[in-house]
């Protein structure tokens, strides 16, 4: 399930439909019983690898309705872990 998710996320282009991407991600979460927190983590990783499509990624992240504080903590933790490695 996660491999399919990563494949979908890495294939995002700047002109893709945000709603269709969100629907695809939601279907994968349901179909493979994926952890939504891990999905957001992978979404951020793929966002970093595909920054030219930043508007699409930001729109998809907004569709998840993640609280700003939670998203800030996730990003901070990712930065701390990068610093440790």
Question: What does this molecule look like?
Answer:
With 85 residues, this protein is mainly α. 76% of the residues lie in helices and 0% in strands. It is built from 5 helices and no strands. The protein has helices at 2-10, 18-32, 36-49, 54-63, 68-84. 11% of the residues are buried.
Radius of gyration: 13 Å
Poorly predicted tracts of residues: none
Please give the share of residues in helix: over 70%
Give the rounded overall mean pLDDT. Answer: 90
H/E element order: HHHHH
Strand percentage: under 5%
Helix tally?
5
Ends distance: 27 Å
Q: Count of DSSP E strands?
A: 0
Q: What global shape is seen?
A: globular
Largest sheet: none
Class based on secondary structure composition and strand pairing: mainly alpha
SSE blueprint:
Elements lengths: L1 H9 L7 H15 L3 H14 L4 H10 L4 H17 L1
Helix pairs in contact: 1-2, 1-3, 2-4
